[in-house]
Amino acid sequence: MMKTSHFFCCLALLAGSTQRVSSQHKKTAVVSCWLTSPDKTIALQKQTPGLPFTSKDNGFPTINVDPSKTFQSIDGFGFTLTGGSATLINKLPAAAQNALLKELFLTAGNGIGISYLRLSIGASDLSAAVFTYDDMPAGQTDPQLKHFNIDKEKEDLIPVLKKIVALQPRIKILGSPWTPPAWMKTNNSFIGGSLKPEYYAAYANYFVKYIQAMKAAGITIDAITIQNEPLHPRNNPSMLMLAPDQAEFVKTNLGPAFKAAGIATKIILYDHNCDKPEYPLTILKDPAAYRFVDGSAFHLYGGTIDALTTVHNQFPDKNVYFTEQWSDGKGSFANELKSNTTRLIIGATRNWSRNVLQWNLAADAQWNPHTDQGGCSQCLGGITIDGAAVSRNSSYYVIGHAAKFVPAGSVRIASDMPAHLDNVAFQTPAGKKVLIVVNNNAGPQSFQIKVKDQLVATSLNSGAVGTYIW
């Protein structure tokens, strides 16, 4: 296998680049290619020279891009900024931290332009310890939420978020709880149990207070999900919330509480695997709940990504989102790059998702921090922070191949799918076209990109990812 970047993206001679380019494309119709190779020798690097359009069809498999056929708008691409991620970033020396945040949240230079973040409301399983915003001593309750506070988040999360918002003021932020306060639950525990109906009103007010407290700290919460992985009550923390219970909570308490408080934050259902699309469908079929709901969120630890289309097709006026998929600390860079770009960046967006989020922005070299008794012990961050050293992992490049080039407000456009050349195309608010391609063939593959009667020839090695912009 050739290692030169020229082999991957710049086989323009295969399309007859020695021929004269048509006059209407001489100055503007040059395609730039950014590449990541499965062996990481090339990592989100721009290839030179650019690829010119020609009118010659060389007979290779063709990806036809049709900007006249449009689909959903895009809200952004990014990660969950877990409590552990925030702690690791906040511990970096000031200069290193500022440089890293610019790289993560801006697009200039080597920046990847993260445009969407998910936060845990209270602790997640990738926090160092479990907490909520209204923990009480055993046997005590606080239905009026007199003890509610987000002071714990002021240690690391909010200082980091403020710097992020200063860099990227329009970033969208989604909040997801792993558990309510234990005193609200049937088992008085952070793990498992269910929300007691007598505390539905208090828990709805808990969300209201969270959104208001974050707003007072300078952080706008664009959306919330009601419960992370509501069918997985064995994590630490976690809670079981069945679909009828979530529907009841939304229509009788959460939706009315948001309306009464004048809160525009979106309410998103489910937030769990693609194997149970009937969960959000059950709730959306309830007219009283439907009116308060923006859409449904999915993970991909079970089922297939076309579950998003199943839900979209039944309720096309409601949005779908992709909110979590991990990268395995024991997996290979090549497999994680290929798999998650194919299934998430391409698969989720081709199935109507408005965003793609990978799980956990940062971890240390031992995949810490995480909670005991259920916390993920081998979740690889988008970056690894080992003291003051920062390294970049597969999901950094998976997200970077989209976030750097497809800003919020972009629209997915039609593109053909030749065998094993998985791809998705977008048009940006500035009018640029962006095509993201993964070569899932067993060997190198030459192919063409076609727009109307103009073509560009290129090639990707097996497992390589290319983003093409013109």
TrEMBL record:
A molecular function GO annotation: glucosylceramidase activity
Residues of the Glycosyl hydrolase family 30 TIM-barrel domain: 74-406
One CC-aspect GO term: membrane
Alphabetical keyword list: Glycosidase, Hydrolase, Signal
InterPro entries per UniProt: GH (IPR017853), GH30_C (IPR033452), Glyco_hydro_30 (IPR001139), Glyco_hydro_30_TIM-barrel (IPR033453), Glyco_hydro_b (IPR013780)
Family: Belongs to the glycosyl hydrolase 30 family.
Protein name in UniProt: Glucosylceramidase
